[in-house]
């Protein structure tokens, strides 16, 4: 795949495509209306890694049906097959694919309906669909169950290849209520946009079926999508090369916590191609459908997410167009709880150390509530509270001037008779460039803090545009999504993380050209890649609350070798110094392309209160 060429072509395709003025919806099956008896015991699922032969629809359907039956015979109650599994993937134009499209439902779904009825099971598979009314073609996936055709999904977020023959999906993300639970479907490139999985999540999806033809990006995002929405994901990829495009296998099943339950081998080069089908099995437990990550969806704040509907492209004159070279330090230390003087000493020492490491240091990020440590009661919060011109802000203003750096630091702020968990951005001249009040509070914050009411991005001469999230904000991809729409080049995340959300990344280390370091955290990485903004995280370490460190830089494209994440240890105080250059306008995927290709008409449910 020639990524840069594709990147240029996709801009033209996306601008030409425009946005639809209407949305169609496939009708989900309703369990109550159809008296569906829900499964309560664990059941087996299967991911079929199947490599279809291009232009051989009938042979592919026959072969895939045999593999599906094999999985059913071994007890699988849900089988997922790859994207475009009935035809192969690459077609130059409508004429090329015309002989191989089918309606949904149609002849192809009829073949699988015989099997699903016989084995009382479900299958989801990708195929090119023709719409009878419009004669438009879609990159679609069909679901077939014990009673026949259940429903379909049309790919919302297309990749460049498909745009030469297919129309953009117009069904939204339907969720189908089945015996196995609520099942939704996304396809491949959809996972690069948090919104498509989120649309399933807010409708209560228990399982996301994920047909794909992925070279890394799509399947690497799945642990975050599972975790963000508290749902299982069953992904099916290919493991060979077609027209120079290599698909890396790695079909997998992910738990609602983002843990890998099963995975097929990852094959990173054409020399490793595996043309023989592979079936990967795992077990899904319906008792896990009601989990803490799914419950966290109730803590979303749709009133803050309206910017997700804004489509300013391609005429966004507010965006920064000048890349900035950033040398950042994420300060990681054990807080002396409630002792501002001791914490000031630690902070000053760490900044001095960072400046020694690199004299060009121009950004410093500290953990949240930087001089007090986390607070879990109103009495302490009141005693530590300060105004925006109090001693803590003055301390950081003096440090910024002394070391000629921008600083992101936090405190308990008292403003308008309310207390906020706030973070300030201070410029090298000692002036306050911006203030952010935490919008998604932790359980401890809720005991004393008022929620913030906006997700601002601040423009600086030295660093470009900076957005700030604090701690639990990172759990909610809508927050970083808003910062992306507002064109943040860098996102700073002051944190006090001891494992209360997120978890270590479990994608195969082979999947990324520049491997993720040990201790990389799914949630923080998802902020960076999801917003296509370099993300600097500062976290505490140790102490009675057992903070987990891991202060870090997460980057926009380690998968294909553009840049390299950096992660501090979990047990050491240090100033982690990292370097990056913002924007990366020439890369095959970046914030510009992300925003150009978002299908905003379908995101309305995300901002409804």
TrEMBL record:
Among Gene3D superfamilies, the record links this protein to:
Carbon-nitrogen hydrolase (3.60.110.10)
- Phosphoprotein: is it a keyword of this entry? no
Sequence ranges assigned to domain CN hydrolase in this UniProt record: 43-286, 326-585
Pfam families tied to this protein: CN_hydrolase
Q: Return one GO MF term.
A: hydrolase activity, acting on carbon-nitrogen (but not peptide) bonds, in linear amides
Return the InterPro entries for the record: Aliph_Amidase/BUP, C-N_Hydrolase, C-N_Hydrolase_sf
What is the name of this protein?
Answer: Nitrilase
What are the top taxonomic ranks of the organism? Bacteria, Bacillati, Bacillota, Bacilli, Bacillales
Native organism: Heyndrickxia camelliae
Q: Which UniProt keywords apply?
A: Hydrolase
Lipoprotein is among the record's keywords = no
* Entry-linked PROSITE patterns: CN_HYDROLASE
């Amino acid at each position: 795949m020639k990524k840069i060429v594709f990147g240029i072509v996709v801009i033209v395709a996306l601008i030409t495509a425009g946005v639809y003025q209407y949305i169609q919806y496939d009708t989900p099956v309703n369990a109550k209306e159809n008296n569906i008896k829900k499964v309560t015991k664990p059941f087996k699922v299967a991911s079929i890694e199947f490599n279809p032969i291009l232009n051989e629809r009938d042979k592919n359907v026959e072969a895939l049906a045999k593999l599906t039956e094999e999985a059913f015979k071994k007890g699988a109650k849900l089988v997922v097959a790859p994207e475009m599994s009935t035809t192969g993937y690459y077609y130059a134009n409508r004429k090329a694919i015309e002989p191989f499209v089918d309606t949904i439902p149609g002849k192809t779904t009829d073949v699988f309906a015989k099997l699903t009825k016989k084995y009382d099971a479900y299958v989801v598979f990708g195929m090119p669909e023709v719409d009878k009314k419009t004669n438009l073609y879609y990159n679609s996936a069909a679901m077939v169950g014990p009673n026949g055709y259940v429903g379909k999904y049309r790919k919302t977020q297309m990749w460049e290849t498909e745009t030469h023959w297919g129309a953009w999906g117009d069904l939204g993300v339907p969720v189908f209520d089945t015996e196995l639970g609520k099942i939704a479907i996304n396809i491949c490139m959809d996972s690069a946009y948090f919104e498509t999985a989120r649309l399933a999540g807010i409708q209560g999806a228990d399982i996301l079926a994920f047909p794909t033809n992925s070279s890394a990006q799509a399947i690497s995002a799945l642990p975050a999508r599972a975790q963000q929405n508290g749902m299982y994901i069953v992904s099916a990829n290919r493991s060979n090369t077609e027209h120079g495009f290599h698909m890396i296998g790695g079909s997998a099943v992910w738990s609602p916590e983002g843990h890998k339950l099963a995975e097929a081998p990852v094959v990173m080069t054409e020399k490793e191609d595996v043309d023989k089908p592979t079936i990967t099995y795992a077990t899904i437990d319906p008792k896990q459908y009601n989990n803490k990550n799914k419950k966290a969806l109730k803590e979303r704040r749709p009133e803050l997410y309206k910017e997700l509907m804004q489509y300013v492209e391609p005429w966004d004159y507010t965006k920064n167009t000048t890349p900035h070279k950033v040398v950042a330090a994420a300060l990681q230390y054990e807080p002396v709880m409630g002792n501002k003087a001791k914490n000031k000493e630690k902070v000053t020492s760490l900044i001095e150390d960072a400046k020694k490491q690199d004299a060009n240091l121009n950004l410093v990020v500290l953990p949240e509530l930087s001089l007090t440590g986390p607070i879990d009661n109103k009495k302490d919060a009141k005693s530590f509270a300060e105004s925006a011109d109090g001693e803590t802000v003055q301390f950081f203003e003096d440090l910024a001037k002394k070391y000629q750096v921008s600083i992101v630091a936090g405190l308990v702020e008292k403003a308008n008779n309310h207390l906020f968990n706030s973070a300030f951005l201070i410029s090298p001249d000692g002036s306050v460039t911006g203030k952010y009040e935490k919008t998604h509070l932790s359980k401890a914050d809720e005991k004393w803090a008022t929620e913030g009411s906006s997700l601002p991005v601040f423009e600086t001469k030295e660093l470009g545009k900076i957005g700030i999230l604090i701690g639990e904000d990172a759990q909610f991809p809508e927050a970083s999504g808003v910062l992306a729409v507002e064109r943040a080049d860098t996102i700073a995340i002051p944190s006090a993380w001891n494992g209360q959300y997120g978890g270590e990344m479990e994608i195969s280390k082979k999947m990324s050209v520049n491997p993720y370091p040990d201790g990389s955290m799914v949630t923080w990485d998802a902020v960076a890649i999801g917003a296509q903004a370099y993300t600097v995280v500062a976290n505490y370490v140790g102490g009675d609350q057992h903070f987990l460190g891991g202060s870090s830089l997460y980057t926009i494209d380690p998968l294909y070798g553009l840049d390299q994440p950096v992660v501090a240890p979990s047990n050491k105080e240090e100033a982690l110094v990292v370097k990056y250059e913002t924007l990366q306008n020439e890369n095959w995927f970046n914030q510009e392309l992300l925003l150009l290709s978002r299908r905003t008409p379908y995101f309305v449910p995300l901002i409804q209160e």
